[in-house]
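Dear support,

I submitted the protein below through the web form. The confirmation email said the job was done, but the results page showed an empty box. After a refresh the structure appeared. I'm attaching both so you can tell me whether what I see now is the final result or a partial one.
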Amino acid sequence: MQPLLDQHGRAATDLRVSLTDRCNLRCTYCMPAEGLDWLPTDEQLSDAEVVRLIGIAVRDLGVREVRFTGGEPLVRRGLVDIVTGVRALDPDVEMSITTNALGLARTAGALAAAGLNRVNVSLDTVRRDTFNEITRRDRFDDVVEGLGAAVEAGLGPVKVNAVLLRGVNDDQAPELLAWCVERGYQLRFIEQMPLDAQHGWDRTSMVTADEIFASLATRFTLTPASEPRGSAPAELFLVDGGPATVGVIASVTRPFCGDCDRVRLTADGQVRNCLFARSESDLRVAMRAGASDADIAERWRAAMWGKAAGHGIDDPTFLQPDRPMSAIGG
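What the results page shows now:
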């Protein structure tokens, strides 16, 4: 086995697999109200192709964690079959999903039985009116039900990902943390990144990690967790002495690119060696043309070798990726 190394000495062991660019919410910081032009079906990887590529990554390239993303991965009809197929390849690989939880109440049990380990749920507020404003959908109760179903199915620890938006929910951080602590969910705040379809991101309006800490400090005492961060994107803190924790992922103001261990595969079979990469490497066309597993693995290694040292958001020449987050996968 030859791992996915880059020229800066990092090895990618965490694979993020986008299963679809479609979503059943319309979050204001992600996509317009009318949605986007979705990928044509014939350009998307089939269930078998997804499992094959993950198999190559796990068996030949040293990947130990797989997270399914989107879009919204729960709208992928073959999701349970994909999880089943990957679990059959390796009983030890860590599998998780990042989801808005709308369909989780009816699928959590099947996903757990198929071999999924845990879930990350995107939830930016616990106020119904704010949820409707951000997502443009009245589905808050479905998210709450989905979170409960994940716990009942054993898909824990259940993590909640939240983005704060200035003038919308930036005053709600302590309230959201209290809600998660009470229910045993592990909350992670994420700085808003320049990955919206509208290309309207503005650093001056982004709620920073320092602002998040200041807001939380009005209600809680946070102390750094003793466990080392390693390659994890979140800085962890004990809440009022623990055992509950809260994390802050400061991708913009405190970049952690030097410890990055992630690689991404889009729903149409493109390797992205960085979330903010301006180029991709096509595995789908090669696979459908008859490439062997060894050839695909070598193409994947070549794609990773060219990974940049950092995302470059602070560079004056930075350009936002053409694809939005919903088409890249988180």
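Response: this is the final, complete result; the empty box was a page-load delay. Residues 4-328 form a domain with the TIM Barrel fold (CATH 3.20.20.70).
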